[in-house]
Design brief:
The complex is a heterodimer of chains A (614) and B (135). Chain A is of the alpha+beta class and 614 residues long. Helix content of chain A is 38%, strand content 13%. Chain A is built from 24 helices and 17 strands. In chain A, β10 and β11 form a beta hairpin. The radius of gyration of chain A is 22 Å and the shape is globular. With 135 residues, chain B is of the alpha/beta class. Chain B has six helices and seven strands; from the N terminus they run βααββββααβααβ. In chain B, the strands form two sheets. A five-stranded mixed sheet of chain B has the order 4-3-2-5-6. In chain B, a hairpin with an 8-residue loop joins β2 and β3. Classes of the chains: A alpha+beta (614), B alpha/beta (135).
């Protein structure tokens, strides 16, 4: 099929029906890209027409949508990400997760902007796309392999040593609800169980290889903007810190602010947690730094863990260090590195895994769980070797691990303590405490995939990282919980949703004006500053309506009870944000009805979302 | 009595208060590295001032107003206009936010600073206690 030139896009999607084995190309609709851009935004628009209120996330009909954005695979710095989307088996609502590395650019080089995968194969398969030619291959030889082995073996089977592979590990095969899609060794689309969806389809791997290019509307101007962004990178202190110490370099700051959760969100201070610092990781364990496609920041770490016989291992990021470290009262950095490695090879989300284990520790501590429930295993805070063992049980659904594999909300419900689960809409709270940065309360409460820090990083805004001044997103008092703060948080929520549609790394913040110029030079569009928030608000309204159709309501815009208890120590001592007041401002900013939480009819129509009006 | 920010008395008072602060001592117990604070001119202040602050293992062994950036060698230099320093000292600008947004321009070993944000916070807390004449 010929492809019409479409600047900023390859111009076609690959539809895969794993039940019938049919593969077909579809041209990308320029109107859809202009309205939903790409990434999780375009994926949500496509999914809206595929799923309905009763689609089970593990049904063959639930699509796994792999999507890139218009800047992916270009020379734009840090535009190498890729979204994996669909209904989440962990939460039952919209799921999206994006990953770095090289898989997104390679998808475009291989000839597609995205993949829409439905159905279920009778036997394990691998989807291979090489130079625009797609085919399904027998994946039986990959089944049972860990995520790293799978990637290596897939390349050998395909005889394409430079192919990029996204795959599931053993956890995805076993239906573990927080299974990740893994690529470029330890890179992960971790959250919301997109690896579980992939496993339910018997799709073990997606291997991509190609030499295509992304057409640009104005290559000269695009190159100029890229040069400007790269030239000013030395002025970006956040980028500099990320390069020096990785994302875990935030540990010391997070501890000072009270942002890094300790003992399952119940302690504000714990001095040993500073032993988890990314600076120490760099000094004591780092082998080299690693960058995603065309990323000058290079926040990735490769470390070693000699105690576990590992010479080279992908180092944990901040979220993993906190979830598998301070949250479970572990200060043994090497042990945490190994725990992160186990999550990577099994293919599970480190945040949901760490949170679920920490919840189990809390329940054990309170006597809600006993050794009779756990098969004789004492699940105590501070025991990193126990954590390693439990990760193995969880990934294999062995013994008590079978319950943990369902996630925190199910674990707490199963033992009659649902109020203990630190989740929003069944997704575990990540490692930024809304008591330390009140704007995060809005982000968590409204996030379309459940508690997520990538849907509006107000902790970043209020620490001065990448403010979007043109959009009135400016740093302020981190404890402020006014309606105005709610409005700022809502704008950041819309802005980051647009970032996730561009499929850009959120660590790259070249400024609104430069991003606009880059996007327009790539696509030939004529977007202005005013269009950006409209685009973002369209995306969050669409995802909102998709979730409301599946039964969510304003009552679900809530934080877990644990986070309403003020901490008595640390950088957020005594603080609890007024969530209701913040949300009033947020609903108003987004044009959502304050009583129902729904985007109003006027809002939907103004955003060209008339098709979702009931 | 209040003290002008750009004065020998002000920086010596800050040093004295740091030496009395248990919180600072705990937060900076392993810290080694002197600072030079450069107060740059703006509409409220028409001079440039250089405030040297010695810092070692949770104490401040010395402090002085110096004549130039070269007079005392320091591991770290932070520059900002007078008005920005005032915002920091009066608690209106978080120093980390200030550094990230480049309103405070830090030069020196960033990795080392990243390990001690709490110490920076305690220094700012002591700054706020120094009775400052902003007239």
């Amino acid at each position: 099929m010929g492809v019409m030139r479409m600047n900023g896009y390859v111009g076609r999607l690959l539809y895969v029906d794993l039940s019938s084995g049919e593969l077909r190309d579809e041209p990308l609709d320029p109107e859809l890209t202009r309205s939903y851009v790409g990434g999780s935004g375009l994926a949500a628009r496509l999914a809206y027409d595929i799923v309905d209120e009763v689609t089970d996330p593990l049904d063959p009909e639930n699509p796994l949508i792999v999507m890139t954005g218009p800047l992916v695979g270009t020379a734009m710095p840090s535009a190498g990400r890729c979204s994996f989307c669909g209904l989440s088996p962990l939460t039952g609502i919209w799921g999206e997760s994006n990953t770095g590395g090289f898989i997104g650019p390679e998808l475009r080089f291989s000839g597609y902007d995205g993949l829409v995968i439905t159905g279920q194969s009778d036997t394990p398969v691998m989807l291979a796309v090489v130079e625009g030619e797609a085919r399904l291959m027998d994946g039986a030889g990959l089944w049972g392999l860990d995520a790293y082995e799978t990637q290596d073996r897939a390349r050998r089977i395909l005889d394409e040593p430079r192919a990029r592979v996204a795959c599931i590990g053993i956890a995805g095969e076993n239906g573990v609800k927080m299974a990740a899609v893994m690529n470029d060794h330890g890179r992960a689309a971790g959250r919301t169980g997109m690896g579980t969806v992939m496993g339910s389809k018997n799709l073990k791997a997606i291997a991509l290889r190609g030499g295509g290019e992304v057409p640009l509307a104005d290559p000269d101007h695009f190159a100029l903007v890229v040069r400007e962004i790269l030239g000013d990178l030395d002025e970006d202190m956040a980028a500099m810190a990320l390069r020096m110490a990785g994302t875990a370099g935030y540990v010391d700051m997070a501890l000072m602010y009270g942002d890094m959760p300790i003992r399952y969100f119940q302690r504000g201070e714990w001095e040993p947690a500073s032993r988890l610092s990314g600076v120490l990781m760099a000094e004591e364990y780092q082998k080299r730094i690693r960058a995603c496609y065309r990323c000058p920041i290079a926040c990735g770490r490769e470390t070693h863990a000699p105690r576990y016989g590992l010479e080279r291992v992908d180092g944990p990021e901040y979220e993993s260090v906190a979830a598998l470290g301070s949250l479970t009262m572990v200060d043994d950095l090497e042990g945490v590195i190994y725990a992160g490695h186990l999550c990577n090879v099994y293919g599970i989300d480190t945040i949901s895994t760490g949170c679920t284990i920490a919840l189990a520790c809390e329940m054990f501590d309170r006597g809600v769980l006993t050794v009779e429930d756990t098969g004789g295993l004492a699940i105590r805070y501070g025991d990193v070797e126990m954590i390693h063992r439990v990760i193995d049980m969880l990934a294999h659904r062995k013994g008590f691990g079978d319950i943990l594999a369902e996630g925190s909300a199910t674990l707490a419900e199963r033992f009659g303590v649902p109020e203990l689960a630190a989740t929003v809409n069944r997704l575990e709270i990540p490692m930024h405490d809304p008591r330390a940065f009140s704007g995060m309360a809005v982000t968590y409460a409204l996030s379309p995939r459940g508690a997520c820090h990538m849907q509006g990083d107000m902790y970043g805004v209020d620490t001065g990282q990448g403010p979007a001044v043109e959009l009135d997103i400016v740093p302020g008092n981190r404890f402020e919980d006014s309606e105005e703060k709610g409005r700022i948080s809502a704008r950041q929520y819309a802005w980051r949703n647009l970032y996730n549609a561009w499929t850009l790394c959120q660590f790259q913040n070249p400024g609104v004006e430069r991003l606009l110029r880059a996007a327009n030079a790539a696509t030939g569009w004529d977007l202005g500053v005013d269009d950006l928030l409209e685009l973002g608000k369209r995306l969050v309204a669409l995802k909102r309506m998709l979730n409301f159709r599946r039964g969510l309501s304003i009552k679900d815009d809530r934080l877990p009870e644990l986070l309403f208890d003020p901490l008595d120590q640390g950088g957020s001592a005594g603080k609890v944000p007024d969530v209701d007041k913040l949300l009033r401002g947020a609903y108003e900013e987004l044009g959502w009805d304050a009583a129902s939480g729904k985007p109003t009819r006027d809002t939907l129509e103004a955003l060209d979302l008339g098709f979702v009006v009931e | 009595m209040t003290l002008r920010l750009a004065s020998d008395a002000w920086i010596k008072e800050l040093s004295r208060r740091l030496n009395e602060s248990n919180s600072y001592e705990r937060a900076a117990k392993d810290w080694e590295g002197d600072f030079l604070f450069v107060v740059e001119p703006d509409e409220e202040f028409d001079d440039t001032a250089y405030l040297y602050l010695g810092l070692h293992h949770g104490k401040s062994p010395s402090a002085a107003l110096v004549n130039s950036e070269d007079e005392r060698e320091t591991e770290f230099v932070i520059r900002a206009p007078y008005g920005t320093w005032r915002e920091v000292i009066e608690g209106e600008l978080d120093p980390i936010q200030g550094i990230m947004t480049r309103r405070l321009r830090l030069s020196g070993n960033m990795m080392k600073v990243m390990r001690y944000p709490k110490a920076a916070q305690e220094i700012v807390a002591c700054c706020a206690e120094v009775p400052t004449d902003w007239s």
